Amino acid sequence: MAERRGGGGCCPPMDLMRSEPMQLVQLIIPAESAHLTVDYLGELGLVQFKDLNAEKSPFQRTYATQIRRCGEMARKLRFFRDQISRAGLSLPTGSVSEAVLNLDDLEIKLGELEAELVEINANSEKLQRSYNELVEYKLVLQKAGEFFQSAQRSAEAQQREYASSQSAEESLETPLLADQETVTDPSKQVKLGSISGLVPREKSMAFERIIFRATRGNVFLRQAVVEELVTDPLSGEKVEKNVFVVFFSGERAKNKILKICEAFGANRYPFNEDLSKQAQAITEVSGRLLELKTTIDAGLVHRGNLLQSIGEQFEQWNLLVRREKSIYHTLNMLSFDVTKKCLVAEGWSPIFATKQIQDALQRATYDSNSQVGAIFWVLHTREAPPTYFRTNKVTSAFQEIVDAYGVAKYQEANPGVFTIVTFPFLFAVMFGDWGHGICLLVTTLFLIIRERKYSSEKLGDIMEMTFGGRYVILLMSLFSIYTGLIYNEFFSLPFELFGRSAYACRDASCSEATTVGLIKARDTYPFGVDPAWHGTRSELPFLNSLKMKMSILIGVAQMNLGIILSFCNALFFRNSINVWCQFVPEMIFLNGLFGYLSILIIIKWWTGSQADLYHVMIYMFLGPTDDLGENQLFPGQKTTQIVLVLLALISVPWMLIPKPFLLKLEHDRHHGHSYAPLQDTEESLLVETNQDSHGHGEFEFSEIFVHQLIHTIEFVLGAVSNTASYLRLWALSLAHSELSSVFYEKVLLLAWGFNNVIILIVGIIVFIFATVGVLLVMETLSAFLHALRLHWVEFQNKFYEGDGYKFHPFSFALLNDEED
Questions:
Q1: Residue 336 contacts residue 343 (beta carbons within 8 Å)
Q2: How far is CA 339 from CA 130, 336, 764, in A?
Q3: Contacts for 160 with CB less than 8 Å, ≥ 6 apart
Q4: Which of 45, 7, 3 is nearest to 814 (CA)?
Q5: 611 phi and psi, to 5 degrees?
Q6: CA–CA separation, 772 vs 409, rounded Å?
Q7: How far apart are CA 548 and CA 613, in angstroms?
Q8: pLDDT of 656-708, one tens digit each?
Q9: C-alpha angle with apex 780: 778 to 783, nearest 5 degrees?
Q10: How far is CA 307 from the centre of its chain?
Q11: Percent of the chain residues topping a pLDDT of 90
């Protein structure tokens, strides 16, 4: 089961029950081989370095300059990745070869590539803006030209009409008017100016209204809709626009219109009223557009080739930069001694990794041509070591479930070992249906088959969570199939899989769905619930009684396991006080009440007695000397109950009073011997890890007594509430079974009864969606959360302290999981 690490083929077998024995090591590394040493230790990934420069800010540390260099290179790589994604290219995936460039060469190369890419982008942006401006200019020439052409045609038609009407009518005033027109001063004629351009269509109405109000209506404005989207030269976004032409008189009106155009983001372009010059301008703009298009396309091809070449080496460069940055971060945690030209490192490592670390130090000394080798020391300390469990892809998800509650204290019993079995089993008790279990199994097998593909892809939050727990779901589905076979439910339907039912009809009239009229004709059904119970009036009372009693048995068994593990912890840490003042009274109290109830349940099942267990347990306290009558299940039951009640009452002060006084005596006995010689490393860590805070400094008796009082009250009340909490197994199992029956009977059978193909198809679709959405998704999540609560609260609070901290080694294998 041991998970192999790089170069770690000699690792001992994995032991999940206790965390790995740890040691605090000190490394004295020559400065010339420090970088290579940290590099090799990062590849090994079995040393958690301590920060020996915690009092220094990041800018005061020795390698702050190198970290800034790495940060700048990381910024350039992020810039390249952003440019590659914008260009629609994809970074090649797969195994990354070892980097061949050193950091200095890579820094120069990245700087040159960034400068080239920035220049290409700037030129491309400038050309694209010019191109978009020319496109808009061409639209203005076309649309505004249409205005002038239509106006000229209209003016010519009016002039012809006016000339024909004047020739037909002779008037006395005609010569006078004609003379007046001829003597008009040309300098007094009004010269109209024009401004043309494009304005966003959504602003066109407000634009026209503002111009009209600002000039008091002394303008003439025409707009034309551009059918296709136009790329705005400034923003680069495609927007809907209108071409406008404004005719005005006077310099003041011109200035107002220019300011309004600027406020509305209207792009202005020059326009010549001469029709021949308009055609010439359109021809020139079209030619320039073709030239710009060719230039832009060539630039895009060159940019794409550059990005493609960057993308081929991106992962290699990114890995090198991230490795170097992590190395320098680690070097900054080391104490630098200028006079001795060496670095001093301290950190935690598993004891089994001693040989591998020493080999890495020797290899770094040889490869760096250092004259002095690194020195490896094991330090003795009273500091609590980190917790390290070597897990694999199957056990890691279960360990994460435990760690989400709290990381185990150093070498205390790990609930993860038992969670591998008990968690999916408790889930399956609530989810028992072998049809639904098969559906979960198929889904999980699909994830496991495509494991290699999904592990290298970026998944969504929900998909990533599901994929990470694929082996948890696999065991949940297998246990659900098992409990479903016990419940004899396949999408709420029973099957005679293990033989024929033990019951048969008394006569031919026994056709109604009831056990009345059924007789036991054969041996008991060999495995699980007899299919004859399903569909009868007695089914619900029978299953309620079965599942409720089964929930109590499972709960008491798991709580006893928790208390036994507290005994294992006390033995392991050599704490005899916890054995006699905590384990023994807790076992007596829990089993004197609920262990006894579990035995009564088994006896009742075995004997087929009709005794009322509610009555027995209530009057065990209210009337212990009363006659049991028909509720007596075995001889001497009354005496046994009196003894158990007395033992349960005695165990409460037993838990509360002796332990604080014994701790006080122990503290007084060892007072003044704080500096006794240390044992060997592993033994001293075990002893010191188990000692509480009162073991050092002043002993606060009142604090210890209050703590023990809280623990006693919590255990006594928790014994009742925790046992009742396990009844959720019965409740959720019943809810799942009833929901499954409702979907089958009220959807599928109802649709079948209409004898209509369309209704049947609709019913099947509704049944599938209801089964998947409610039973396979919501019920799975509900049962998962309830199983989680039973482990965290009811099971782990009996023995698990969970106040440790995780072992976080310096490892390059973890770089892929970290964000920049």
A1: yes
A2: 63, 9, 82
A3: none
A4: 45
A5: -65, 145
A6: 41
A7: 12
A8: 999 999 999 988 887 754 444 444 444 445 544 454 444 445 778 999 999 99
A9: 105
A10: 32
A11: 62
Are 447 and 52 within 8 A, CB to CB? no
**How high is the pLDDT of residue 685?**
52
Query: CA-CA distance, 358 to 367, in Å (whole number)?
Result: 14
Tokens of residue 42, six digits: 């990062």
Give 550-615 as a DSSP string: HHHHHHHHHHHHHHHHHHHHHHHTT-HHHIIIIIHHHHHHHIIIIIHHHHHHHHHHHHT----HHH
Helices (H), 45-201: 64-86, 103-168, 173-182
Phi and psi torsions of 504, nearest 5°: -140, 160
Contact 811, 7 (CB under 8 A): no
272-281: Cβ within 8 A, 24+ apart: 273/148, 273/194, 275/145, 275/148, 275/149, 275/152, 278/141, 278/145, 278/148, 281/141
> What sign for the dihedral angle of Cα 536, 542, 548, 553?
negative
Residue 659 in tokens: 């332990």
What is the C-alpha to C-alpha distance for residues 611 and 589, in angstroms, rounded to an integer? 24
Could you tell me the pTM of the whole model?
A: 0.80
Whole-angstrom distance, CA of residue 54 vs CA of residue 179: 102
Type of residue found at 52: L
In the structure encoding, which two tokens stand for residue 699, read together?
Answer: 């002993």
- Which residues have a Cβ under 8 Å from the Cβ of 787 and sit 6 or more positions away? 423, 426, 427, 430
Torsion of CA 653, 658, 660, 666, to 10 degrees: -170
Q: 755 exposed, middle or buried (CB, 10 Å; 0-12, 13-18, 19+)?
A: exposed
> Which amino acid appears at position 304 of this protein?
G
What residues form DSSP beta bridges with 198? Answer: 243, 267
Lowest mean pLDDT across 689-698, 730-739, 805-814: 689-698
* pLDDT of 560 above 60: yes
Query: Quick one: tokens of 604?
Result: 């009742």
Cβ-based neighbours of 490, under 8 Å, separated by 6 or more: 433, 434, 435, 484
For tokens 């971060």, the residue is 329
The Cα 80–Cα 77 span in angstroms is 5
Half-sphere exposure of 224 (CA within 13 A, CB side): 17
Is-contact 471 421, C-beta < 8 A? no
CA dist 374 and 34 (Å) reads 9
Angle between helices 103-168 and 64-86 (to 10 degrees): 40
Residue 527 φ/ψ, nearest 5 degrees: -145, 120
Locus of tokens 């396949």? 490
Helix 596-607 / helix 539-572 crossing angle, nearest 10 deg: 140
* Continuous segment of H or E residues that includes residue 223: strand 219-225
Cβ atoms of 311 and 89 within 8 Å: the answer is: yes
Q: How far apart are CA 677 and CA 81, in angstroms?
A: 58
Q: HSE on the CB side for 263, CA within 13 Å?
A: 12
DSSP 464-507: HHHHHTHHHHHHHHHHHHHHHHHHT-BTTB----SS--SEEESS
Neighbours of 631 (CB within 10 A): 18
Question: How far, rounded to the nearest angstrom, does the alpha carbon of residue 560 sit from its chain's CA centroid?
Answer: 34
Question: Which whole-number Å values give the CA distances from 61 to 53, 72, 178, 311, in the listed order?
Answer: 8, 18, 97, 34
Whether residue 766 contacts residue 371, with contact meaning beta carbons closer than 8 Å, is answered with: no
What share of residues in the chain are helix, strand, coil (percent, to 5)?
65, 10, 30
Q: Is 647 within 8 Å of 588 (Cβ atoms)?
A: yes
CA distances from 732 to 16, 728, 783, 788 (A): 31, 6, 7, 14
SS3 267: strand
Paired strand residues for 49: 347
Q: Which two tokens stand for residue 482?
A: 């098992």
Nearest 5 degrees, angle CA 82-CA 78-CA 56? 155
* 358-368 average pLDDT score: 95
pLDDT of 615 higher than 60: yes
DSSP 668: H
